């Protein structure tokens, strides 16, 4: 890599770290196709350049108290009006377009204001997003009142420690003391967010796990391969645009070769198109589908 390309990458990483949320060295390494050793070198360079690099349990970001942060923010952050115009433009993009989420992610990184939430997030969710942002900033626990869970098939209150959002504010990452793990909660399923003024006490367990293309998160990944017809391929990339990067064409079939974090999301898709999809692996997923069919629980 030449010097210009290295400088460009360093600047891109600096811009990402100047947003609201921290990123682990592993995440930065994967996002920017660099070794973890290189990322650590860049972090040291930022410190030597005068930026205060905040390390919050392994998640790094540029501290806004840095002497040069104000000048940097003028270059890479949008005003509310600019963010609103860009958000409206992104909204016009077809939901099936694979670049839509990437554009939103960049907008959220470069624009840090609660006012922007009202411009970007659906009206019925914006107040809850703002409360969650405040709880994250103050490291406070919240109650998700009347949370409608698809996994447990019930509606009840959940006490959580929120610590980050997915790129489009649709999900919040939080530690669930009841389940003793970090997971995502869909903001649209929350009736009301109530801040209970209790500080986090499980911060060492705050971890953003992998999210598969079916929007299911988990602490582990499972190698997953499907053979799809043209119809199944079209539906997959339309409903789950991020799946496209894992698909290749083989003869008249399309091969999805990637990973999943749980059988539930992929299971719902495959069961809906059983005559158009062949499961290659894992065998345990085939057993999962057979059990679902037997019990008719899909």
**Helix content percent band:** 40-55%
What count of helical segments does DSSP give? 11
Structural class: alpha+beta
Give the number of DSSP strands: 13
Approximate shape: globular
Secondary-structure element pattern, one letter each: HHHEEHHHHHEEEEEEEEHEEHEH
Report the β-strand fraction as a percent range: 25-35%
Whole-number count of domains: 3
**Low-confidence parts:** none
The major sheet is characterized as: 5 strands, antiparallel
**Termini Cα gap:** 50 Å
Biggest sheet strand line-up:
6-5-4-3-7
Mean pLDDT: 82
Estimated radius of gyration: 21 Å
Key structural traits:
4-stranded antiparallel beta sheet, Arc Repressor Mutant, subunit A, 298 residues, 5-stranded antiparallel beta sheet, single chain, alpha+beta, 11 helices
